[in-house]
Amino acid sequence: MMDKAIEKAAVLIEALPYIKSFHQKIIVVKLGGSAMTDAKVLHSVVHDVCFMEQVGMRPVLVHGGGPKITAAMEAAGLAPKFVDGQRYTDEPTLQIAMKALIDDLSNDVVRRIRSAGGVGIAVNGRDSDFLRGRKRAGKDLGLVGEVTDVNKPLAERLLAGDIIPVVAPIARGEDGTLYNVNADLAAARLAALLGASKCVFMSNVPGILRDVKDPDSLVSTVRAEDVRKLITDKVISGGMLPKVEAGLASIAAGVAKVHMISGLIPHSLLLEIFTTRGVGTEIVA
Q: Is residue 23 in a domain?
C-alpha cells in the first residue's frame, strides 16, 4: 500500500514542472477515432481534459464525427460520396453533418464535461460564429471549407472563465455560407490562430511508426524538418498522412509542438503532456 502511495507521489513530482510550464497556456486537442465512437474512451479523455483545466491549462476541444455522419446518411437513404478519400458535401450532406457534429456529438461532449466536474460550451460557425471560413481550394468537394479565422473575443472570454470550448468543425463564410471542415485541419488552424502551445491529435494510432506492423517502432520525438523525409520515404502514409500534414501546418504557423497519440491508451493525454517519456509522437519545431 505504501509503495503505491510513493509511486503516486513520484508521478505528481514528475508532473509538476509541466503543470507550471503550461499554466494558462492554450492546448488544442483534436478528438477522433475511439475517442468519439467508444463511450468508455470518451469518458476517460473528458476526465483528462477537465484535469488539465483544473490545474490551470486552457484546453480547447475540436472533434470530428465521420463514422456518425456516414451512419446518419445511410439511415436517411443517402449514399456517402468521396473524392480521393475526402467526403463530398452537398446541401443534404451538410445538414446531416451539422446535426451529427453539433446537435449530437458536441452536446454529448459538453454533458460529459459537466458530469466530470467541468464546464463546457459547444461552439461552431453555425450557432456562435466561432469559426469563419471559405470554400476549400483544390478539387471540388462541394460545401467543404477551410478555417480562415476564429472569433477570438469569444474564445478569450470562454477560456478566461474556465470554460472548455467544444468545437464542431463547421465554419461560416463571409456571405453566410456554411462549410464542413476536416476536423484535423480545423484543429491545426485553430491552434495557430489562438496561439496555442500544443496541438494534440488523438486517434486509434499510437503515433508515427517506422514500421506500421511493429508498435515498438514508435518515433517518440522528431523535428518537423525530418518528418518531411519520413513522408517522402513513405514511412508516413495512408490515414496518418493528413494528420501529420495538418500538424506540420500548425507548426509552420507558430505552434511549438504537435503530438500524435492513441485514445486507446488510458489517460494517454495526461501521460503525453505530464510525463517526460510520453506515450505518442511529439513533433517539434
A: no
